[in-house]
Design brief:
The protein is α+β, with helices and mostly antiparallel strands and 105 residues long.
Length: 105
């Protein structure tokens, strides 16, 4: 296989994160939904929490007693700047798509 055939030639536009917003009030929920909007108009969503909010979540009665959420992002605080920095870090390291799910409207 020719290695060059694995690459797309010409100019392609790679969508980048333009903005994001809280969909839930971070003061009211342990797992907060956020919507990510990209330069091509596509949207994705993730859940954001902190270590302390995650502990609070597990103090509640829940069945089953655990979960697996691939689109859960854990940040130090729910401060806008901390989330922004984390999202940008994930984007630069090509992990933002894995840390979010497509949002179909």
């Amino acid at each position: 296989m020719d290695i060059k055939s694995s690459f797309i030639e010409g100019n392609i536009e790679v969508p980048y994160l333009e903005r994001w917003k809280f969909d839930d009030d971070p003061k009211e929920f342990d797992l907060v939904e956020v919507t990510l909007t990209f330069s091509d108009g596509s949207e994705r969503w993730s859940l954001v929490t902190t270590p302390q909010k995650l502990v609070n979540h597990f103090k509640k009665e829940m069945e089953p007693p655990g979960f697996n959420i691939k689109h859960l992002i854990i940040t130090k605080t729910m401060d806008h700047d901390d989330i922004e920095k984390t999202l940008k870090y994930l984007e630069v390291n090509d992990e933002l798509t894995e840390a979010s799910q497509s949002l179909e409207r």
